[in-house]
Design a protein that fits this description.
Strand content: 5-15%
Distance between the termini: 29 Å
Number of helices: 6
Order of helices and strands: HEEHEHEHEHEHE
Mean pLDDT: 92
Strand order of the largest sheet: 1-4-5-6-7
Structural class: alpha/beta
Largest sheet: 5 strands, parallel
Helix content: 25-40%
């Protein structure tokens, strides 16, 4: 298996995940089309072939935690690179106007539970190429990816600006 081969080479195995998204052409969406952010009676807008899962629903948060937890257990995953690149265009949720507070609490709870159960699991936030760097996320992740822009000259400016507000040790570059 791939994980074993990677580990034989003396490396840790990790996965780049985007657990807040679902593809409309997936078993999860076919089984639970109501689990995405949407306004009833309106067409759902895909972006990047994705829809945003409704983390205002406890069952969605539990499902995602269970899926990630099972991956770590089964494959000895050392780290997750946690991404979230899609804009929310229809934020209709069972949580109502509190959706973003509920969504953030859901993300934090998944990370907290994963870290509590798997004490050596590393998590990097790379959402939006650095668009999710806040104290709550910094408390739950080992490092953050500051930008998807990897041009050397641009990175100097990006990393210098980042270092004015955040400690350099939390920046992955």
């Amino acid at each position: 298996q791939l994980v074993t081969e990677v580990q034989k080479l003396g490396m840790k195995f990790g996965l780049w995940v985007e657990p807040e998204m679902v593809n409309a052409d997936s078993d999860l969406y076919r089984q639970h089309p109501d689990w995405v952010l949407h306004f009833p009676g309106r067409e759902r807008t895909e972006s990047r072939n994705q829809l945003v899962l409704d983390f205002g629903r406890a069952e969605v948060v539990e499902y995602i935690f269970s899926a990630l937890d099972a991956l770590v257990d089964r494959y000895d995953i050392a780290f997750f690179k946690w991404d979230m690149n899609r804009l929310a265009t229809e934020p209709g949720s069972v949580a109502g106007k509190a959706i973003w507070r509920a969504h953030t609490a859901g993300v934090y709870s998944i990370m907290d539970r994963l870290r509590a159960k798997h004490s050596t699991l590393e998590i990097q936030s790379c959402s939006g190429g650095g668009g999710r760097i806040d104290l709550g996320m910094l408390a739950r992740t080992d490092q953050v990816w500051t930008s998807d822009n990897t041009d050397a000259f641009d990175r100097i400016r990006i990393q210098e600006g980042f270092s004015l507000a955040y400690p350099a040790r939390c920046m992955e570059a």
